[in-house]
Design a protein that fits this description.
The chain is globular. It is built from 12 helices and 5 strands. With about 325 residues, it is mostly helical. The protein binds adenosine-5'-tetraphosphate.
Length: about 325
């Protein structure tokens, strides 16, 4: 059974990406699972090419530094030939109405001038990501569920029209995990592309900067440290601490008598959780030849895994050899 998950280089990897996804990918993934840096998905709105390249390298290094086996990781754009060809076949399988119905497209395109056509078509590219690799399960949040449903529809339609080639994928909800919120504005989730990064802990931040951001986290004026999900600031700190300690927020709350002490505890737990990843990722980023070697090997394996499906699909639609 193959599970496929990706991370988009729309900004630097933040603590929420790590605690909510990458940590689980590293500890619970199986040898058949695949994890990729979806750099092509980061191009559906204005982007900076040099930044995209740097962020892609950083994310690849973080995935490997976090302990995901290098043979399970690849960069999406290293498969542009295969994904480009399969996207075209799938665009010829998808109707305009199906693509235009995607809620995320409607929301993101609303009121925006110069909307890139790729914002409309990227769910088809996402279907290509999934179908090329023969993924059975795609763990996604509610916002991406409709896109996996589209991949499912396209797989079934292709198989019924031309012949059985694609595994029909299933969207699965990732196991409930930490939903890390912005430290400066706990009403919203921590995000890599947030403009003001005062409340965002990046995985590669220096320890002193991590401590500073956590010390400035917004709490409230209650005096006691208790876990109450209706108090988003303190609850966020306790959830982060619990995720780092492998414990429950209710239990870790009992160890602290003041917000000051709690913040010190959270800061140390986060610094120690991220330390080995920051060090290993730093080592990889300082050794571009090694990172390139890992990247090439991942690309070769992912290409090889999908090659036969692409060739069959091209042949069955009446193209290729
Ligand atoms: N704050 C979060 N708490 C828990 N999990 C999170 N994830 C993201 N933010 C949090 C999980 O990280 C994985 C990779 O995310 P993505 O690159 O697919 O995009 P995203 O969910 O949109 O992440 P960001 O950081 O918020 O990026 P931008 O700013 O571009 O929107 C996913 O599994 C996601 O659930």
């Amino acid at each position: 059974m193959t599970r496929l998950s990706g991370i988009t280089p729309s900004g630097r990897v933040q603590l929420g990406n790590y605690l909510g996804a990458i940590q689980r990918w590293a500890s619970q993934g199986t040898a058949d699972d695949l994890y990729f840096v979806s750099d092509l998905h980061a191009m559906t709105s204005t982007h900076n090419p040099a930044m995209l390249r740097a962020l892609t390298g950083e994310q690849l290094a973080v995935l490997i530094a976090a302990g995901i086996p290098a043979e399970s990781v690849f960069v999406q754009s290293d498969l542009t030939r295969e994904l480009g060809a399969l996207s075209w076949v799938l665009e010829c399988t998808c109707t305009f109405g199906e693509a235009a119905r995607m809620i995320q497209f409607k929301e993101k395109a609303k009121g925006q001038a110069g909307v890139r056509l790729s914002l409309l078509t990227y769910p088809v590219l996402m279907a290509a990501d999934i179908l090329l690799q023969g993924a059975d399960e795609v763990p996604v949040g509610a916002d991406q569920r409709q896109h996996v449903e589209l991949a499912r529809t396209l797989a079934k339609r292709f198989n019924a029209t031309y012949g059985e080639v694609f595994t029909v994928p299933r969207a699965v909800l990732p196991p409930a995990g930490a939903r890390v919120r912005d430290l400066a504005d706990p009403a919203r989730k921590m995000s890599k592309s947030t403009r003001d990064s005062a409340g965002v802990v990046f995985v590669l931040d220096e320890p002193e900067l991590v401590r500073r951001k956590i010390r400035r986290a917004v709490t409230d004026d209650a005096r006691s440290v208790e876990y109450d999900p209706r108090r988003p600031g303190p609850a966020n700190l306790l959830e982060i601490l619990a995720a780092c300690a492998g414990d429950t927020p209710e239990r870790v709350a009992g160890d602290y008598g003041s917000y000051g002490a709690l913040k010190e505890g959270v800061a140390e737990a986060v610094v120690e959780t991220l330390r080995p990843i920051r060090e290993r990722a730093g080592g990889l980023l300082d050794d571009p030849a090694e990172l390139e070697r890992v990247r090439k090997a991942g690309a070769a394996r992912a290409t090889q895994r999908g090659e036969h499906r692409l060739h069959s699909a091209l042949r069955l639609v009446g193209t290729g050899h």
